[in-house]
Amino acid sequence: MPAQTRLTTPSRGEEPALVASQIVGGPVGRFAAVGRRGWTYAAAVLSALASVMVALGVAQKNHCIRSGWGGTGALWRECYSDLPVGAEGPHGGTPWSSFGQGGTQPVLTAVLSWIVKQLTPSGSSLSEQQIYFAISAVIIVLLIAATTIATASMLRGTPWLAAHVALSPVLITASLLSFDVLGVALATLGMAAWARRHPVAAGVLIGAATMARTYPLVILLAMVLIAQRDRAHDAIVRLLAGAAGAIVLCIALAYGLGGNPFAPYSSWWHQGAGYGSLGYLVQIAGGTIGSAALSIIAILGWVAAVLTGLYLSGRPVERTRLAPLALTLLVIVMLTGKSVSVQCCLWVLPLLALTATRWRDHLMWAGVEIVYFAMVFMYIAGPSNPAKALPGAAYSFFVVLRMVAYVGIAWASWESADDLPRDPLNPYQPAPPRSGATYVPALAD
């Protein structure tokens, strides 16, 4: 099947999409006018379908919605979420004066959590948690829709690739665990602005995303490296200025409201190994790695990402695209970090769409993610019932399997991205040489 068919009409070109299309009437017809309605139609349909995936996530957490998120039942039923924690504390004040999580959350995440708290009416502890969770779920649906629309806008000729964001099975298990999707949405909107040659807006959005989670710095790094290769120096300056401005503004906001925006990062430095990390595997095996050593390893992971990015971005223009580069660097940073949370998978979804990842590869990776989701809760809940618990050795196996899946999906993205007729994230790429001309790599001068 030609690559173009796979990209424009996935239900014709990929077996998983063909099978899934039977739910909504089957694959696109032979004589259908593909693309006649434009990318906005695809974005609208996919955004609506994304709400169904989040609704399935709500159903998966039915036990906790009825009984609360405290106790070991939330772990054994695998419905635990960090979101209801935000329902604690009094109304009013600021994210740092009245909301306990404000000191351990990045600025924008703390602000969003506080806003939801203000929208939650007073009542019993359980009712406040339920309403807080319901409001959070609506916000998450809107943020996923924004991410889907932004992704489709970058893939106007192949907008159905945004289904990698809207219809990924990992939305069921991971989307309602935290407000990570806030950072994902801001970063994706930033990428869309960059793709349309608005570097200042892109910098502001990615800088804001960094104030929700730190992973967007990887995307910023990939943009700078590719733009540097293509000699788009003015765009780099505007991009970094926009990002710096957004970060400074968020820091000033936190200080102005009586908070310490650097507290989460100071707390991170003193934390030990978290679930899903290599350091935690050492801990299971009986070894110990100090928090400072783990922090240094995580920083070295960022250094490795920079060096890898420098090497990969120095290859010929037609072989190095921004999205697979960003996904590769993201995986490096994730796997060398102090923890690899279940919701980390959400950061991968827009990049899977932008690399035109095959659904076969996506579903294999997502399958490992969902299995790990079940296993990590069985392991965490172990102390309450050792007879039912997942042994440490078995949990270690699933951690390693998950790491292999992340490496595999990053590797596969390089091949699949070559099927795209152009790089959707690189508006500054030089025009290809005329027929008969000798190709000269961008960094050869």
From TrEMBL:
| Protein's UniProt name | Putative membrane protein
The UniProt keywords, alphabetically, are:
Membrane, Transmembrane, Transmembrane helix
Q: Its domain of life?
A: Bacteria
Q: Which organism is it from?
A: Rudaeicoccus suwonensis
Segments traversing the membrane: 39-59, 131-155, 167-194, 200-227, 239-258, 278-311, 323-350, 362-381, 393-414
